[in-house]
Design brief:
Strand order of the largest sheet: 5-2-1-6-7-8-11-12
CATH superfamily of the largest domain: NAD(P)-binding Rossmann-like Domain
Number of helices: 12
Number of domains: 2
Helix content: 40-55%
Radius of gyration: 19 Å
Order of helices and strands: EHEHEEEEHEHEEEEHEHHHHHHH
Structural class: alpha/beta
Shape: globular
């Protein structure tokens, strides 16, 4: 796969940056943009990224539905949608999937790669952690607050690692430093333990990450959640070591001056990604017989808040 035919599904803030890097390397990459009017805006204005990452790229190929990719015959598809769209995306991909096609999950959340592999097989799936923080300034314009280089990418089967190295190289050549790693799930856990813990706390309290960690009552909840999720990770074969919590808290206190994206979801009265964040930790705990009272409480509170506007 020296010159893969690339598609990116989901052109929100995160997906737009990923697409910009791929377009910088391969201008013929195809974007799937479902939001009303976005196709025309992308073709007219391209994608502009400013801040810690800088891009100004033209967009030539855009479709509004995954089925529209049939004419482009992509063999490398990045999924950058919200996790609650994942099942619908998989159903649509069934209509265009061909042997040899590779799918890269770039989602925020735990276990998304396994959901894809259950349908298309582990041989078809890669997982990627995106280590940048971005927000939309307009339909085609993104502000990048930080990028903790590199991103990490890995295959679910060892035989695909050489291909993973090539994909990481393509992204790096496009200015989005990416490293192919042997055990991508380890890197997913390292990142998602922080995300899973702080997202629900921030969403319920409307605090920034830094504020939540500096306020003793929410700091106590965070420490309880961290203890539970680290126990789950260890039971699943990922012991992150005694220093992980200290390092994670120091990192979050440094970069946590912003509100988690789940705060934005709640403020905008839109669906959150709680099912693949706190909800997934609770799910794993039940399967393993490990109690998760802090995580269960925070997850249920987010779902209760969602119900105030989603079920009306």
């Amino acid at each position: 796969m020296d010159d893969p035919r690339i598609a990116v599904v989901g052109i929100g803030a995160t997906g737009a940056v990923l697409a910009a890097a791929l377009l910088a390397r391969n201008p013929e990459a195809v974007l799937v943009a479902r939001r009303a009017g976005l196709k025309d805006q992308l073709k007219k204005n391209g994608i502009i990224v400013s801040g810690e990452l800088n891009y100004r790229v033209s967009v030539h190929n855009v479709v509004e539905r995954i089925t529209g990719l049939k004419g482009y015959n992509p063999n490398l598809i990045f999924i950058a949608t919200k996790t609650f769209h994942l099942h619908a995306v998989i159903d649509a991909l069934k209509e265009i999937f061909q042997p040899g096609m590779k799918i890269v999950s770039t989602h925020n959340g735990l276990g998304t790669e396994d959901v894809i592999a259950d349908v298309f097989g582990a041989d078809a799936v890669f997982r990627m952690t995106l280590n940048y923080g971005v927000s939309l300034r307009g339909p085609c314009e993104v502000s990048a607050a930080f990028f903790n280089r590199p991103n990490h990418l890995g295959a679910l089967v060892p035989e695909n690692q050489p291909m993973g190295s090539r994909v990481a190289e393509i992204l790096t050549e496009g200015g989005l430093d990416t490293q192919c790693v042997d055990d991508i799930k380890l890197y997913v856990w390292k990142k998602m333990i922080m995300k899973c813990t702080m997202a629900s706390i921030c969403a319920v309290t409307d605090k920034t990450i830094k504020e939540a960690l500096e306020f003793p009552p929410t700091r106590e909840i965070a420490e309880g959640c961290f203890t539970e999720v680290l126990t789950i990770a260890r039971a699943m074969g990922y012991d992150l070591g005694e220093d992980y919590l200290k390092t994670a808290l120091a990192y979050l206190e440094k970069v946590g001056i912003h509100k988690d994206s789940m705060c934005v979801d709640v403020a905008n009265r839109t669906r959150t990604e709680i099912d693949f964040l706190g909800g997934k930790v609770v799910e794993y705990g039940k399967a393993l017989g490990i109690p998760t009272p802090c995580y269960s409480t925070m997850t249920n509170l987010v779902r209760a808040i969602e119900s105030n506007y989603l079920l009306r």
